[in-house]
Amino acid sequence: MRSLKILPAILTLLAILTLLALPIPATAQLPTTESQVIDKIVSQEQVEMQMLRQYSPMVETYIQSFRADKHLGSVPEGDKYFLGRAALANGVEVEPLTRGAGTKHNKIFGGLGSFFSTEYLPQGFLQMIYVDMFGFDRAHYTFEYVRREFLGEVRCLVFDVDPVRKNDKGRFVGRIWVEDQDYHIVRFNGAYGGSSLISNYFNFDSWRTNAGKNQWLPAFIYSQEGDPQDEQTKRLAFKPFRAQTRLWGYDLGHGAEEQELNKVLVEASTPVKDETEAANDYSPLQSERSWGRQGEDNVTDSMERLGLLAPYGPVDKVLETVVNNLEVTNDLNIQPEVRCRVLMISTLESFTIGHTIVLSRGLVDVLPDEASLATILAHELGHVVLGHRMDSQFAFLNRVRFDEKETFRHFGFARTPEEEAAANQKGIEILSKSPYKDQSGNARLFLQALKDRAKEIPNLISPHLGDRVPARWSILAAVFTPQPSDEKPAANASADNMPAGNAPAANQIAALPIGGRIKIEPWNDHLQLLKSKPAGTVAEAEKMPFEVTPFFLYLTRPGDHPPAETATAVAAKTDSEAKPEIKAEAKP
């Protein structure tokens, strides 16, 4: 009997010994030496390159050339712009969307001038999403460990990388940052070697952001070549320049559709009954309004599917709050209600689609404060109040079904000069009764800065779908020129003869650099406003209105934040922004 009592204990011990004898899965074996880590980095990068072939994100490149300035160090003196769709399955092919940007087989943008003019290749900037397209491995590169470093919340291993053969053309020379869990390259900074008299590789800083599912996707690239203050720059075959390349729309349309499809709608056992006793048919006026709203929805849905319009989110709500402030103080009751959306591109433009006000991301980026934002929105609200309509035929769905390359030919929301003048007048009236009327000096400084820089940044202020922002120049006239209450503002008033009002503070920012307000989630196009810290005293040369600046991202891992907070961003590292709400995110 005693032997029977110890039998269960013996069986338990045998089971434990059997489990201990089982082999440990290979996946649990992590790199333990520098050589193993390098092998893991190389293999992970090859997997990354293969994975990217399934995507066709939007790609935008904006270039500013610079000249020396005695007081500011350097200032823009010209710009170039490209917007297209990347075909990563074919390498670095790009299909242009903007007019005059060339074709699939002629990817030069910026125009052809003299024999010695600079020609920029969009696929050359797109190539900067890869460390090396043709052989990033130990046979072609040497790796030297530098240190550990945090990029935001992500701890990284830092390596210097050099080609084995120094004269290999197109090989990467520079530094890589590798997150230390799965060994993805999340940033690389340097250049491709082998420039010649007829072709040049430029310095660049390329960033990837976390998209979940163990994916780090190319998102932002900053490029720079030459310094206007450097004597050696004068011997270059091109002008000194800075460029930003952005990629977004990797998962266009999929997230929202799948979420909607996965919702299970359970019908109640007792059918829901409409309690309204009145007739449900629309009146002619209601039908007309609903028809217009249907056209707006068709256009905005189409633009969102193309990656041109950001999904509705926190930034749109901020814009709508400002619009609501304008409506309430002017006792406006607009039906259907006014909505706001954000165009994803960097060019400065705004327009209305029926009762939907659209501001470009680039425009929101450079506006210095809420009063300046209210000025732009007041003009667009003027179009809505005056009943300036869109093409009602967009309510037919077939009118928004066309080849993507024809987008800017099919969509156009520019107004006639007469409509613009009327909206200016109405915008002045709305602003003069708004809570922003005493802050209009800031908006005046913004418009003045835009006017002063207009000749140097023609591509940034050239709209694709709406009207040029400088065309709204007269909107602030009545705000700065006090008039008797029974007199209307002069129709021909302009900002040129406005009184200066209070002198601006020495630290005041007239306009922010590009990327000064909004951060982008490249995977699903969600937008968030930057959370900034005070910049302290700002030198005149640090203000950089409308200028290209480097990117510096605050990287996070999957699960570090709830979904609403994971919009990894262009936390543009610009100490030029004076107000607390517009400073870039904290450095690592």
Features:
588 residues; alpha+beta; ten-stranded antiparallel sheet; four-stranded mixed sheet; 12 helices; 26% helix; 20% strand; globular; disordered N terminus; disordered C terminus
Description of the structure:
This protein has 588 residues and is an alpha+beta fold. It contains 12 helices and 16 strands. It is 26% helix and 20% strand. Residues 1-8, 10-28, 101-108, 110-117, 477-503 and 560-588 have low confidence and may be disordered. Helix 6 crosses helix 8, helix 8 packs across helix 10 (417-432) and helix 8 (370-385) crosses helix 11 (440-453). The N and C termini lie far apart (69 Å). The strands form 3 sheets. The protein has a 10-stranded antiparallel sheet. The protein has a 4-stranded mixed sheet with strand order 11-13-12-14, sandwiched between helices. Strands 15-16 form a two-stranded antiparallel sheet. Strand 5 and strand 6 (172-179) form a beta hairpin. The protein has helices spanning 2-20, 34-52, 122-126, 254-261, 284-306, 314-329, 361-366, 370-385, 407-410, 417-432, 440-453, 477-480; strands spanning 58-69, 73-87, 93-96, 141-151, 154-163, 172-179, 185-192, 203-210, 216-225, 241-248, 339-343, 349-353, 356-360, 467-468, 518-520, 527-529.
